[in-house]
Amino acid sequence: MANNNSLNPNDASAQSYTSMSVGDVESIGAHCQMAFCHQLDFLPFRCESCKGTFCLDHRTETAHSCAKAGEWARRRTGVSPSPSRSSTPSGKPSVFTYDKQCSSPSCKTLVDTATNPGVHCANCNRTYCLKHRMGEDHDCKNLTPLGARPGAVTSREKGMAALEKLRAWGANKKAAAAKTSSPLAGLKKITSYSSSNSSASSSLAAMNALKRSAKGDDKIPPEKRVYLHVEASADTTTAKYPTGKFFYSKEWSIGRVLDAAAKALQVANVNNRVEGEDERLRVFHVEAGRLLEFKEKVGDALKDGNTIVLLRGVGPAVPDLIEA
């Protein structure tokens, strides 16, 4: 017969659990040290910066407003605290501690942060917020680029100097043409018919040589071709010989000719990536003495044997650069 003592609930040996007091339960975990929390957490977290104990919700330095934020990271890396750098251990900038702001004097927006990446202006070498990223919004054309050497010649100044030289050359050529068209010049032509005939023959030979050596798209029909001398100012190209002979279609725009000529002469063409005129390329028509508009047609503006020059920083286009 079974022993009745084994079924007695008052028998301590028959119990399958151990009774615990309230103090024993609290000794397993710890209370959160946040003033308004004090939650008992059985798996508490310890802050390595302030050495405090916190619950899951307040375990981060930001959540419990750690008085020594970033201290553990500085001890680990051996970097002393700096007021100009972020105190967060991650490599991401913090909008609360980062001190770089938009370069526009009237703007206080922080840039190069996680919420506002900032935009660098290549012309003035400054960084702006999204609102002031455009050149006209931060008055870029009137700013001296940061890091520019005093007295350094800008690309625009070089382009304008080259343009002035071409203007003078074109003016002299126009004056010479007017002198040969005077009545006295006509009498001289009559007496020197043989020499003028020889000059015409040499011009025809030069044109034939141009057509033979000119390069271009073979798909352009011969009757629609315009043969040109193309040059680039020395400050715009990396080519050893910045000149060439090319033919283009009469139906092409000047903008398309510029793209093709820049590629052939190894000229950096950033017209579609810049706002101002300092880095923009323009086409100068030597015989007409003017800058050509991008939308003009080749057949309307140019003739066989003409010369065009690629210049940088000389825009916008001017209708006539050579006075009559």
TrEMBL record:
Compositional bias of kind Low complexity: 78-94
InterPro entries in UniProt: AN1-like_Znf, UBL_ZFAND1-like, Znf_AN1
The entry's keywords: Metal-binding, Zinc, Zinc-finger
Pfam hit, one: UBL_ZFAND1
Disordered as annotated region, ranges: 74-94
Taxonomic superkingdom: Eukaryota
Record-level GO cellular component terms: cytoplasm
An annotated Gene Ontology molecular function: zinc ion binding
Domain AN1-type residue range list: 26-74, 96-148
Name this protein carries in UniProt: AN1-type zinc finger protein 1
Higher taxonomy: Eukaryota, Fungi, Dikarya, Ascomycota, Pezizomycotina
